[in-house]
C-alpha cells in the first residue's frame, strides 16, 4: 500500500514538474538506410502481444513481407490511417495480415470520425492521444469506446508520472488496454526503471498495460537498437504487461 500511495502521489508531483518530452519537438535526424531487417524474437508466450506500428505513407504495405513479420514474432499490426484513406488502406492491410494470422488495428488520432465503420470491418481501433490536456479528450475517448463495441479499443498515451498526470485512472476503464510510450531513449529511465514502472503500472491497472517501446536510440538519433537491447526491454516489461508494441521497427526508413 505504501508503494501505491507513493506512486499515486507522484502523479500529482510530476504533473507540476517540467516536462521531459516537449510537445513541440525538433525534427529527428533521419536514419539513412532504406530497409532495416526485423529481428527474429524468441517465443514470448501464448497471448503476449508483439505489435508493430505501420505508417503506409512511409512504408507501403506492398513492401512489407507479412510472412516474415509473423515468423519474426509479430502478432498484431497497428496501421496509421486518416478520415481520407481508412476505407482504402485497411481492407488491404487486413487481407495481408489475416493470411498469416496477424490481427489488424487502425492507428488513428483525435478527430477520426469512422471508428464504427472500422469496427464493422472487424478491425480494432488504436487511438493515439499524446497530450498534456487529457481531460479535454475524454469525451472523444468515450464516444470512440461506444463506437467500437465488439472489437479491441486501445489507447496510446504519454507515460503517467514519467511525463505528468495523464489521468490513467479516468481513461484506463474506457479501453481494453493502454499503451504507455515507455521510450527510455527519450525519458531519463534505464532498463531497471522500465522494469520497475511496468510493475507499478500493473499494480495500479492490472492486465491493462501493453508497453510501447522505441526500436531506435532516441528521437534525435533514429539508428536502430540492437536485437539484444530490444529483447532486454521486452523481457523487462513482460512479467507485468500484456504485450509490447514496437515503434519505428523493421522496414520503415523512419522519416515519418
Quick rundown:
The protein has 256 residues and is an alpha/beta fold.
Fraction of helical residues: 25-40%
CATH topology: TIM Barrel
Major sheet: arrangement of strands: 6-5-4-3-2-1-8-7
How far apart the termini lie comes to: 42 Å
Name the poorly predicted regions: 1-37, 251-256
Following the backbone from N to C, one meets helices and strands in this order, namely: HEHEHEHEHEHEHEHE
The second-level CATH architecture is Alpha-Beta Barrel
List the total number of helices: 8
The total beta strand count reads 8
Global geometry: globular
CATH class membership: Alpha Beta
If you average the pLDDT, what whole number results? 80
Main sheet summary:
8 strands, parallel
| CATH 4th-level superfamily | Glycosidases
Strand content: 15-25%
Domain module tally: 1
Structural notes for this entry:
This protein is of the alpha/beta class. The chain has a single domain, classed as Glycosidases (TIM Barrel). The chain contains 8 helices and 8 strands. The chain has an 8-stranded parallel sheet with strand order 6-5-4-3-2-1-8-7. Helix 7 packs parallel to helix 8. The longest helix has 14 residues. The termini are far apart. The N terminus and C terminus are likely disordered.
Set down the secondary structure blueprint.
Elements (H helix, E strand, L loop, with lengths): L1 H14 L33 E6 L11 H6 L4 E5 L5 H13 L4 E6 L6 H6 L3 E6 L8 H10 L5 E5 L10 H4 L5 E4 L10 H14 L5 E5 L12 H11 L5 E5 L9
Parallel strand pairs: 1-2, 1-8, 2-3, 3-4, 4-5, 5-6, 7-8
Helix pairs in contact: 7-8
Amino acid at each position: 500500500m505504501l508503494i501505491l500511495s507513493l506512486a499515486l502521489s507522484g502523479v500529482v508531483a510530476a504533473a507540476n514538474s517540467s516536462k521531459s518530452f516537449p510537445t513541440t519537438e525538433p525534427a529527428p535526424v533521419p536514419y539513412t538506410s532504406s530497409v532495416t531487417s526485423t529481428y527474429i524474437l524468441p517465443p514470448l508466450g501464448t497471448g503476449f502481444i508483439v505489435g508493430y506500428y505501420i505508417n503506409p505513407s512511409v512504408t507501403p504495405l506492398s513492401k512489407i513481407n507479412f510472412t516474415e513479420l509473423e515468423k519474426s514474432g509479430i502478432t498484431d499490426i497497428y496501421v496509421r490511417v486518416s478520415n481520407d484513406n481508412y476505407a482504402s488502406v485497411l481492407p488491404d492491410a487486413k487481407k495481408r495480415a489475416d493470411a498469416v494470422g496477424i490481427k489488424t488495428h487502425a492507428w488513428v488520432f483525435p478527430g477520426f470520425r469512422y471508428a464504427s465503420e472500422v469496427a464493422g470491418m472487424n478491425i480494432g481501433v488504436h487511438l493515439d492521444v499524446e497530450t498534456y490536456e487529457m481531460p479535454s479528450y475524454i469525451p472523444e475517448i468515450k464516444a470512440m469506446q461506444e463506437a467500437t463495441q465488439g472489437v479491441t479499443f486501445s489507447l496510446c498515451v504519454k507515460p503517467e508520472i514519467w511525463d505528468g498526470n495523464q489521468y490513467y485512472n479516468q481513461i484506463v476503464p474506457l479501453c481494453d488496454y493502454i499503451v504507455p510510450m515507455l521510450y527510455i531513449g527519450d525519458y531519463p529511465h534505464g532498463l531497471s526503471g522500465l522494469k520497475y514502472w511496468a510493475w507499478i503500472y500493473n499494480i495500479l491497472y492490472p492486465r491493462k498495460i501493453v508497453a510501447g517501446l522505441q526500436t531506435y536510440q532516441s528521437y534525435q538519433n533514429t539508428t536502430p537498437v540492437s536485437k539484444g537491447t530490444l529483447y532486454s526491454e521486452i523481457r523487462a516489461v513482460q512479467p507485468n504487461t500484456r504485450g509490447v508494441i514496437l515503434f519505428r521497427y523493421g522496414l520503415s526508413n523512419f522519416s515519418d
